[in-house]
Amino acid sequence: MTSVLVKDLTLKFGALTVLDNLNIDIPEGEFLVLLGASGCGKSTLLNCIAGLLDVTDGEIHINDRNVTWEEPSGRGIGMVFQSYALYPQMTVQGNLSFGLKNARMPKTEIQERVARAAKVLQIEPLLHRKPAALSGGQRQRVAIGRALVRDVDVFLFDEPLSNLDAKLRADLRVEIKRLHHSLKNTMIYVTHDQVEAMTLADRIAIMKGGIIQQLDTPTEIYNRPTNKYVAGFIGSPEINFFEGAVEGGGFVTGGERFALDGYSFQGAVSGGPAWLGIRPEHIVSGEAAASLPVTAEVTVDLVEPMGSDTLAWATFAGMPLRIRMDGQAAVGTGDRIKIGFDPARASLFDKTTEERL
Amino acid sequence: MTSVLVKDLTLKFGALTVLDNLNIDIPEGEFLVLLGASGCGKSTLLNCIAGLLDVTDGEIHINDRNVTWEEPSGRGIGMVFQSYALYPQMTVQGNLSFGLKNARMPKTEIQERVARAAKVLQIEPLLHRKPAALSGGQRQRVAIGRALVRDVDVFLFDEPLSNLDAKLRADLRVEIKRLHHSLKNTMIYVTHDQVEAMTLADRIAIMKGGIIQQLDTPTEIYNRPTNKYVAGFIGSPEINFFEGAVEGGGFVTGGERFALDGYSFQGAVSGGPAWLGIRPEHIVSGEAAASLPVTAEVTVDLVEPMGSDTLAWATFAGMPLRIRMDGQAAVGTGDRIKIGFDPARASLFDKTTEERL
Amino acid sequence: MWNSEARNVADAVTPRGPKPRPRFSRTNIMLYGTLIVVAAYYALPLYVMIVTSLKGMPEIRIGNIFAPPVEVTFQPWVKAWAEACTGINCDGLSRGFWNSVQILVPSVILSIAIASVNGYALANWRFRGSEVFFTILIVGAFIPYQVMLYPLVIILREMGLYGSIWGLVLVHTIFGMPILTLLFRNYFTSVPEELFKAARVDGAGFWGIYFRIMLPMSLPIFVVAIILQVTGIWNDFLFGVIYTKPADYPMTVQLNNIVNSVQGVKEYNVNMAATLLTGLVPLIIYFASGKLFVRGIAAGAVKG
Amino acid sequence: GELEVTHWWTSGGEAAAVSEFAKAFDATGNTWVDGAIAGSGGTARPIIISRILGGDPMGATQLNHGRQAEELIQAGLMTDLTELAEAEGWTDLVNPSSLLESCTYEGRIYCVPVNIHSWQWIWLSHDAFAQIDTAVPSDWNEFAAAAPKLEAAGIVPLAMGQQGWQQNGAFGVMTIAIAGLDAWSKVVIDKDADTARGPEYAAVFEAAVDARNFAANSNVQDWNLATNMVITGKAGGQIMGDWAQGEFQMAGQVAGEDYTCLPGLGVNEILDTGGDAFYFPVIDDEETKAAQMALASTLISPEVQVAFNLKKGSLPVRGDVDLTAANDCMQKGLDILNAGGIMPSGDMNLTADTQTQIEDLMAEFWTSDMSAADAQERYADIIASAD
Amino acid sequence: MSSSSNVRRPAGLFRNLSAKIASIPMVLTALVVFVGGTAWTVLYSFTSSKLLPKLNFVGLDQYERLWSTRRWLISIENLAVYGFFSMIFTLLIGFTLAALLDRKIRGEDVFRTIFLYPFALSFVVTGLAWQWILNPDLGVQSVVRSMGWESFTFNPLNDPDIVIYGILIAGLWQGTGLIMCIMLAGLRGIDQEIWKAARVDGIGTVKTYVRIVIPMMRPVFITALVLIASGIIKIYDLVVAQTNGGPGISSEVPAKYVINYMFRAQNLGQGFAASTMMLLSVVIILIPWAYLEFGGKKRG
Ligand SMILES: Nc1ncnc2c1ncn2[C@@H]1O[C@H](COP(=O)(O)OP(=O)(O)OP(=O)(O)O)[C@@H](O)[C@H]1O
Ligand SMILES: Nc1ncnc2c1ncn2[C@@H]1O[C@H](COP(=O)(O)OP(=O)(O)OP(=O)(O)O)[C@@H](O)[C@H]1O
Ligand SMILES: [Mg+2]
Ligand SMILES: [Mg+2]
Asked: Which of C125, C205, C302 sits opposite E220 (nearest CB)?
């Protein structure tokens, strides 16, 4: 069953078109992540769904009800904000019950719901504190609780973790994932952190300039990015790109040429200028490299040890090449190493359209 | 040759002791990173070295000269700030040359130096723009340029990249590393980002509460953290800790017991309560696990795919366990998997002192 | 200068610990010297007023205005407060004081209530044209009052409020509106927008959000607004003269009348006592809320 | 009923006088609510007028009669007193009759004159002249001759409050004394600019330059402070209207003993017949109306006229009252009045606008070193454009 | 909670209705008082209204008369002198004091309190206090004379040539504290790292202020300037209390002229013409400011 349906949504701020004829269909219980660089319109889309912005054109349906002109509180959504947006002068209890009081719910039911939410989020001991007396993680939990008590069908999250430090972010990420597992609500989650997107999402929508570039599962997006932008956006360290051309089933770049055996083209194999993208972690170095379809020998320019891994920078076919190695790898600047990769794991993009070949 | 020497440095703000009897000796040409959580005193230490704060006690030597009472401009240092601190009403050229003009350097030499710095940093086309018309990365480069033109021996960086977005940060990180390779100046770099620290540093000083916890190479810090704090601070995903006890050359926890063969104790092997830390990436899963000294079978609670890797959460000996696996690993929630690790790669810490055993 | 001094010291001992700084360096002497002289200039008038108000007339005539009183007398204060005459009304400033209070309280409440709601609407509920009205309002703050004095007489007359205290309250509300609205708008704009969005998702409406969310959060700005308005309205002279009748004259106008309606010789001590009495309310407010006052002025002005 | 009465009589003598009105009015069973406005008429008038225009009129108010109230009357904002006046026969009582004429607009009477004020006086301090061992002068010329001596003794020869209306008043007095009544009426009544440019006026401006020099060290603003200088012997004399007498009286000084007054500067004994009048703004309330009529009647009643004018130092508006209690100066004034040495007041003939312009000119003239010729030229220009 | 499945788009006027209702006072003030009142006054400045406003147009007569009236010219001249010096000294003193206070001195609070307290006092109080201090017979002049310097003359309030400076002294005393506060806030708002960078570059304190900090504080200076300027044009109470325009008319100011003609001389048209001129001068000040504030931002 469709839980949230966005139909031909357009939103303009004056002359600036932020969202352009956008369509998404989110089935019930899905965890959808909106991912994109800053300013691409993620928050705007979320605010449109929540009813906090008036759409310029198009419709929004939630649970098969056209809510385009409905007030935010009448849409059956709950929203969690980046800055937590807790009411500073109210206790945690007050924060949780504010929305329910506004809806004139009976006192006993309010108490019941608050108690339930507090239990789920393990914030019972905090109920009588004010937000100022809470840590970042606790605040975030209260913010989630505020959506929880309202018993809504759809949760909207706008970068809920980006104000937290790395460690806490990792922990709360896991908690949100657990929450989704147990509640099974529809969740729409905005972030610009790809790790969050990859780990949390059932499906990811990658946005750029108000347009969805690719809407698919994390694995699919990681392995088969639909265009060059997506390929470059997803993955850290960044994917390596080589400019060249597809010629008779092989790829030619900077004097080198290698076969593309095993690469599954989208349509018919066509020649022409193209980009080849290969992820740093898909490049194998050392002895194991020899057994792969494409091999080469390169000189290491720079080594960045990161503890668990090591990132080596080399030059291949005149272009910089990142190679991810094991943290214990003993390479140094100036070493010559053997590398290899499997074209099946690479991605090819048309030079002009930048679409996947 | 010693480039920067900090001797018995103490700094108090009123009653608050921020730095407590601190000693560091930095050889010429070293890239030293000061790493620590917010508020641990990193910036304070840097400001003391720069002469921007009056020390409460102790001495600071730069190039074997006692500069404790010297003005910042007379210490032979250049400093790059988090907020760039560019003079907003001057052009890039003006920013670079202002300090030199002030030192009454001849015009031709000023021009020469500015041109050289601009070339090194590739900001020649920007020389006549004002800072407001530059992007974050360009501003950062100008800020570095301002230190560069002064031809100093020691560069001080105070979180120079933390105002930039992730992608740009990664790029500039590499540039700073390249700069160090070509200039070979002494550099002291403050950050709270461990990836920056690991990739840039010759040596890392990990600070907590104004005290240096460990001062060593990145590899050493990663592999042999000197205490539990350092072990937990460095590494992402976070290290797994198990509470237990060392008993007769083995480690006992939550009913499990395994041998510590291959672990090199700091001193004599002693029994007693202890923490065992093992990094998620040092836990091997699947068939390869069988060949390792310690093995077990665990159930996966949650899987976080991250593209290049996958992080699985399991429970071991009653405590949560993070396991880093390959990005292509096909595990799902509820799967039972075999794991194993080599105690030689683990770390043991005393329960009370939290020092490495 | 610094370096050479430092070098000299450095020759003698190894630098260690804080750099020795002479307590009375030339810079410090200049710095504190200037500050103290200027402070004396600023403090002098208050001192002179106080001293004069405690002297008797003969002492004033022969003495030096800076000299402390030989014989302290509170008679001038008593006279200024309760006996000084304007015409045949000899009840001193006390009447003006109560008039001022009667004008002040409703003016402050009304102007702040209206301006805060305006600022809130402008910050969070922008509608078509709201910015235009706001711009007019702000530009209006710079229009000389003189341009609007007469039209306001007509407006008040048409409303039947001319000459009554309520007329003056309205005038204060109108002329206080630009700066207060700006103050509140800036403040409410700085309240995270997400808070407002969260409240809307929680089903609170315009007034619900104002009373339940915004008001409790804006105590500091209210304090600032109250300080600004209390001092501003208390110190008003022009509107008090034009829009009220003598029976309702605020204290400043009364002060000017008492001081200028001389009978025989000028009683400087009474005048100074009267002057001090009039300045007392804003001074007390200012001394009591010193830091807030400063913060408020800075917040209201630097942002504007 | 209660009646709020506004006026600008706030100096010592004035306040004492006005209480006589209040007392008498209260005795009629009504209540006088005092609305004194400090400062000169210049400060008070705008307040009074704007209140009337603003729809919040007071029950009664002092205004100089003359053209000031013309527009208010035209706008129907002033109560018509004709009935009361006819009933009480004011036309026969008021002397000189010009006083009532200036209250009359298109045949109806709108105000009650309460006193006759004349500007044509100089007040001389016996104490000051005693200090320089000179006899108290008997006219302006003697005074001018004694001035240098006074100056040398550290006494300000002529006290002069530095406000336009005082300076203008003094100038007017000198005009009558030096240029004579004919020239004056040509200029002020007929607005004849040529006369204003003529030799008679030139002499006046020359004398004014002298007076300006005499007053150079007079560091006061208010007229009563200037009077006080005369009272205390710090100044030789002051040209000021007869209301100054109230100040001498308050200070317990006796005319002829402590001070001397010379009408018409001792040169040309004519008094103008300006004065104060009370107007009654229209108020739609029967009780108030009754109170207004009661007040109007009280103000002009013989006993009140005597009591008030004795305190105020001015002359009563009715010729049928007994003023044996009056002092030396007042007697002099009465004598001149009875001898018909009267002239109309400038107030009645010039609009407030023109008055203001002349006052501004005088203020500037007295506080700068403007030459007599320049001042005369500019004066004539104002007269030329007056309506 | 509304359950209708197809909610209509609410009509434009009623969207945000509460906000619109709540803004009525502001809208009325802006339109009726500020726009309407100003337009009314400008309109009637072209009439020959005397005591009562009447629409008998006389073209520019009132303005011609205005500009040939000595008193107006003196007022303008006074305003120019007062404005010029007040602007310069207020900025100079305000900034200097702020810079001194910003030097991490002891007792900052005490000094700041002393510099600022006059701002809490009304102009009437200020004027009277200074009238007393400048009183030639009993104030500063006589004190200095009694100390032996017999020929010392400092009597601005009774000397038509310098009376405006006497008012200036009082005005500065009252107003500089506020500007100091604003400047101090501006200084405090400057990124501390800029100071550090300047120190590392070896730039002296004074030079750092002049070359770096002051240019960075441009918006603060503009705010201060606008505040001072709008205060100068409105100056009225201070003059009334301190000299009441005297001696003679030598310390008259435009605001007083307006009120004088509107209410006392009973020539409304003249008063309106004068106030329109005041409005014009404000517009002349405001337009460059608005251009700097808003025009500049768009380009930057
Ligand atoms: N109220 C507004 N008026 C005008 N433009 C706006 C407004 N809000 C947002 N924008 C513009 O719309 C675009 C999209 O903004 P949005 O906040 O949706 O980005 P985002 O993807 O959420 O970015 P971030 O990751 O920084 O939060 C941006 O270019 C922004 O400048
Ligand atoms: N001027 C000061 N006065 C008093 N305490 C200060 C001052 N500056 C810093 N501190 C305190 O000193 C401690 C160390 O501050 P410091 O700025 O060195 O931290 P840091 O490690 O640089 O942190 P961050 O990563 O947040 O920049 C903090 O607890 C801070 O509160
Ligand atoms: Mg966003
Ligand atoms: Mg820091």
From this structure: C302
pLDDT at residue number D13: 76
Count chain B–chain E contacts defined by CB atoms under 8 A: 63
Q: Which domains does chain E have, with CATH numbers?
A: 64-299 (1.10.3720.10)
pLDDT, one tens digit per residue, over B30-56 is 999 999 988 889 999 999 999 999 999
Q: Which of D85, D124, D317 is CA-nearest to residue D227?
A: D124
ipTM of the complex: 0.82
Eight-class DSSP state of A159: S
In chain C, the N- to C-terminal Cα span, in Å, equals 41
3-class DSSP assignment, residue B189: strand
CB distance D71 to C289 below 8 Å: no
pTM of the model: 0.84
Q: Which atom in ligand 2 lies closest to the alpha carbon of residue B192?
A: 25
Q: How many CB pairs under 8 A join B and C?
A: 33
User: H/E element holding B26?
Assistant: strand B16-27
DSSP character for A239?
Answer: P
Q: Could you tell me if B295 and B343 are in contact, meaning their C-beta atoms sit under 8 angstroms apart? A: no
Domain boundaries, chain C: 14-73, 94-300
pLDDT digits (tens, 9 = 90+) for B96-129: 999 899 888 999 999 999 999 999 888 889 999 9
Alpha-carbon span A167 to E300, nearest angstrom? 39
The string of pLDDT tens digits covering residues B137-174 is 899 999 999 988 988 989 999 998 888 877 788 888 88
Query: What's the pLDDT at A237?
Result: 85
Whether A and E touch (3+ CB pairs < 8 Å), yes or no:
yes
Domain C94-300 has CATH 1.10.3720.10: yes
pLDDT < 70 positions in chain C: 1-13, 86-89, 261-265, 296-304
The CB density around residue C213, as the number of other CB atoms within 10 Å, is 23
Which residues make beta-bridge pairs with B285?
B339
Largest Cα span, chain C: 86
Q: Give pLDDT tens digits for E165-210.
A: 999 999 999 989 889 988 998 898 888 899 999 999 888 889 999 9
Closest to E248 in 3D by CA, of E47, E90, E74, E117: E74
Give the minimum alpha-carbon distance from E77 to chain C in angstroms, rounded to a whole number. 18
Three-class SS state of D261? strand
Q: From chain B, which residues contact C within 8 Å (Cβ)?
A: 54-59, 66-71, 74
Q: Do E9 and A66 touch (CB under 8 A)?
A: no
pLDDT of residue D42: 67
**CA-CA distance, A114 to A117, in Å (whole number)?**
5
Strands of the sheet containing A294-305, edge to edge, are A284-285, A336-341, A294-305, A309-316, A319-326
Question: What CATH number belongs to A230-350?
Answer: 2.40.50.140
Rounded CA-CA distance E42/C153 in Å is 16
d(CA D333, CA D314): 9
Pick from C159, C168, C160, C147: nearest CA to C236: C168
The pLDDT tens digits of the residues spanning B238-256 come to: 899 999 898 887 888 877 8
| Percent of chain D's residues with pLDDT above 90 | 12
Are β-strands A2-13 and A16-27 bridged in parallel, bridged antiparallel, or unpaired?
Answer: antiparallel
The alpha-carbon gap from A93 to the nearest alpha carbon of chain C, in Å, equals 14
Superfamily of chain region B2-226:
P-loop containing nucleotide triphosphate hydrolases (3.40.50.300)
What is the helix (H) or strand (E) element at residue D331, kind and residue range? helix D328-338
- Mean pLDDT, rounded, of chain A: 89
Rounded to 5 degrees, what are φ and ψ at A353?
Answer: -75, -20
> Which residues have C-beta atoms less than 6 Å from ligand 1?
A 13, 16, 18, 36, 38-44, 192
Contacts of D219 in chain E (CB under 8 A): 136-137, 155, 158
Residue D261 has pLDDT above 70, yes or no: yes
